């Protein structure tokens, strides 16, 4: 039998149900692997002792009707976990112990999943390289000194390095899809309103969505079926009929209309990315899909819009971190001095930068010129997608404009860092679902991803297209365990 | 438009984040490069566009306002940075 850590989530579930493997054996295998992989810095908090206890409990009285029977899973440290430290990668929450559980993680434990621990991420999910975390940067298993992407960088790295069979991240502007693309894994950003935001440390509330990060599309369909639910604790959660996405998964692409947006052919796009995109187009065409050239004319304005809307919402959301009721506090001469010192010492540079941008665009005299303007452009961006979806069933693009870069390469230039998310940000602004699947390697051997964007609540369709492309592309991640 | 040092100080006051002069200078240059990038939006005519505040079309649902979690007072106070078993403590605010 192959190694436990080489099995997919779906395989593990089957092996447990057939009693070929026990929950304890599986949990131990991942813990042993994590113990040898400290160099990657994927974990902020390990909960291994409890995980083994829970695995024992499962094996003693197993419930095989669950969808994740006794399966250990590590999650991004942006999800509140009851009685277990939740930091959001920030000093300001370094000792915060939630008294409640996020709905998404609760859904996983209710289906038999077992928490392994909390994974590193950019501070408050603000970053594209996992270099803004208070707990240090994460290394990519793809190569030494290489970023795993961000903000769900710890999740991507842990999954690609086989420290967890699957994981979840959050995506505000690309934070699931970009690291998925950089590390050769599958990442889905669901439709806004599909997964509850309750108990997820808020960054930009109108954009944030949780989603699965998995080894393949089947695993993605399984995990998505579990985490997506209507929740009355999140006022933007949508009450619609959710499917068993795994059961309905089929490799259907014939007759589908797939849009190729010309605006995504950005200036200076590398030949490798263009070739990858063309490869995806050719595969779809040969399988009988109809390729349609489409236009999303306001694509160019998505990033500037995002860098008004997201910081504005963040500046309000992060106003709660004042050192009074929880989290880090610095001593001050008086209350105001305490607030200012606490926030100055408790937040890192990128977070402070974004709070400042947000405060400025919402401040008196600038609100109309920036925030209102951005909301109007956001409407135009959404209208672009609405128009295109009258003609096509899905849209195919590259996930990122480049492969992974070196740690430190982009830290001094915020704008060049922001450009990483050029293909992913428009989807969050429009609230649509999109999946990134690994589709090839660049000359250096680093993974590259393709993104399939769907209509709202049409996750099944993009999963099906991804499932087909995945088989045709037959991507193999080149990870040589350099850190062990 | 450009953001000067005075504006940086004003924003930091509004955001309740203290910045020293050196940090303020760095922020001034960062914010200017970011806003130069953001200003691109001014090229776009949005006079006929309604602001989009939410991508969710659905009507907001109401639920009963009920207490679901009980007896978590001690746990909540435990997260408080200044230890006191009954209250959240802050620096003195009245003379």
Residues in helix, % of chain A: 25-40%
Number of strands of chain B: 0
Q: How is the biggest beta sheet of chain B arranged?
A: none
Termini of chain A, distance in Å?
Answer: 23 Å
User: What average pLDDT do the residues of chain A reach?
Assistant: 96
SSE sequence of chain A, one letter per element: HHEHEHEHEHEEHEHEHHHHEHHEEH
Parts with pLDDT < 50 across at least 5 consecutive residues of chain A: none
User: What is the annotated CATH architecture of the domain at 4-256 in chain A?
Assistant: Alpha-Beta Complex
Number of strands of chain A: 11
Calculate Rg of chain B over CA atoms. Answer: 23 Å
Largest interface: A-B, 69 and 50 residues
**SS strand fraction of chain B:** under 5%
Report strand order across the widest sheet of chain A: 4-6-5-10-11-9-7-8
Give a short overview:
The complex is a heterodimer of chains A (484) and B (95). Chain A has 484 residues and is α/β, with parallel strands linked by helices.
Structural account:
The complex is a heterodimer of chains A (484) and B (95). Chain A is globular, with a radius of gyration of 21 Å. Among the domains of chain A are: 4-256, Amidase signature (AS) enzymes, CATH 3.90.1300.10; 300-375, no CATH class. Chain A contains 15 helices and eleven strands. In chain A, strand 2, helix 4 (103-110) and strand 3 (114-119) form a beta-alpha-beta unit. With 484 residues, chain A is α/β, with parallel strands linked by helices. In chain A, the strands form two sheets. Chain A has an eight-stranded mixed sheet, with helices on both faces. Chain A has a three-stranded mixed sheet with strand order 1-3-2. Chain B is an all-alpha fold. Chain B has a domain at 5-43. Helix content of chain B is 36%, strand content 0%. Chain B is built from three helices and no strands. Chain B has helices at 5-14, 21-38, 73-78. Chain B starts with a helix and ends in a 17-residue tail after the last helix. The chains are: A alpha/beta (484), B mainly alpha (95). Chains A and B meet through helix 9, helix 10, helix 11, helix 12 and helix 13 of A and helix 1, helix 2 and helix 3 of B.
